């Protein structure tokens, strides 16, 4: 049984054929998926999808790339987090890849937005789903400054030093289909170093379909291909990777496990 710790079922490529996507999950033994929110405007749809099926969960947050959308206030995030099946805050973080002509100083709004999410995570005791691209130093520095937060660095593509720093702060590292790409040897090297009890797997679907589906529309049913690659790197069985990553997911997103 696999868990897809990061997917975007609310995006039209997937939401337009949700029954088919869910049936494929079943066939592929993917028994849970976390539906990630990227704007406040989108939250209602993300949440409705998570409510529609026992296997699905949701987050509340505004992606650092999204401009011209409603800026999240702390109260917006706290209110979203109250909803049933909302188990995390994000995706949030920093992304300087698309800064274009702007300087890092011009991206202060992203850092403010990130801090707002960290405050929400602390107040709700929910984990952060962190997106970082071309901005790892600032991402780590802000997390350090803010202190006391837990979560996952999703779709990890950074160096071993960044992985080490994230692990030292108690964060999990999530690997996507990129791990299966032919030119991703550096990332596979990083994955070899991340202890299994801190690894998660994800699709980030509809993007980044793993080999052999590279370039096609991705979906949660493909997460076993990420598990298979990770198993190969770790010298483990796919079943063992499925078990550990499921346990890690349930530990981090503990609202997914009912208290008994
Ligand atoms: Zn992301
Ligand atoms: Zn995402």
Biggest sheet: strand arrangement:
1-2-3-4-5-6-7-8
Per DSSP, what share of the residues sits in E-state strands of 2 or more residues?
15-25%
Q: For the residues shown, what is the average pLDDT? A: 97
Evaluate the radius of gyration: 17 Å
Regions with little confidence, pLDDT below 50 for 5+ residues: none
**What small-molecule ligands were found?**
zinc ion
State the helicity in percent bands: 40-55%
Morphology: globular
SSE order: EHHEHEHEHEHEHEHEHH
Please give the count of helices.
10
User: What is the CA-CA span between the terminal residues?
Assistant: 22 Å
Question: Can you characterise this structure?
Answer:
41% of the residues lie in helices and 17% in strands. The chain is an alpha/beta fold and 260 residues long. It has an eight-stranded parallel β-sheet. The structure holds zinc ion (ZN) (2 copies). Residues 6, 8, 36, 91, 204 line the site of one zinc ion.
Please summarize what this structure is.
The chain is of the alpha/beta class and 260 residues long.
Topology, element by element:
Blueprint: E1 2-7, H1 12-15, H2 18-27, E2 30-35, H3 40-51, E3 56-60, H4 74-81, E4 86-95, H5 108-124, E5 128-133, H6 136-146, E6 151-153, H7 160-168, E7 172-175, H8 185-193, E8 199-201, H9 223-234, H10 238-252
Parallel strand pairs: 1-2, 2-3, 3-4, 4-5, 5-6, 6-7, 7-8
The chain binds zinc ion (2 copies).
């Amino acid at each position: 049984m696999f868990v897809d710790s990061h997917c975007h079922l609310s995006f039209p490529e997937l939401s337009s054929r949700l029954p088919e996507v869910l049936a494929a999950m079943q066939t592929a033994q993917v028994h849970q998926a976390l539906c990630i929110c990227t704007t406040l405007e989108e939250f209602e749809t993300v949440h409705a999808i998570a409510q529609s099926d026992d296997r699905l969960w949701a987050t509340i947050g505004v992606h650092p790339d999204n401009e011209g959308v409603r800026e999240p206030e702390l109260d917006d995030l706290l209110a979203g987090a109250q909803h049933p099946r909302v188990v995390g805050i994000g995706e949030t973080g920093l992304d300087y890849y698309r800064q274009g002509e702007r300087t890092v100083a011009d991206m202060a709004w992203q850092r403010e937005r990130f801090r707002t999410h960290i405050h929400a995570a602390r107040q709700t005791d929910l984990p952060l789903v962190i997106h970082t691209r071309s901005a790892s130093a600032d991402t780590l520095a802000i997390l350090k400054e803010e202190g006391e937060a837990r979560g996952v660095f999703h779709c990890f593509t950074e160096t071993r030093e960044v992985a080490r720093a994230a692990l030292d702060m108690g964060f999990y590292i999530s690997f996507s289909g990129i791990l299966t790409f032919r030119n991703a040897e550096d990332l596979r090297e990083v994955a070899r170093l991340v202890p299994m009890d801190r690894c998660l797997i994800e699709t980030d679907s509809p993007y980044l379909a793993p080999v052999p589906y590279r370039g096609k529309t991705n979906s949660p049913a493909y997460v076993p291909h990420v598990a298979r690659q990770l198993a190969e790197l770790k010298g483990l069985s796919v079943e063992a990777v499925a078990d550990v990553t499921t346990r890690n997911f349930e530990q981090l997103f503990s609202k997914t496990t009912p208290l008994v």
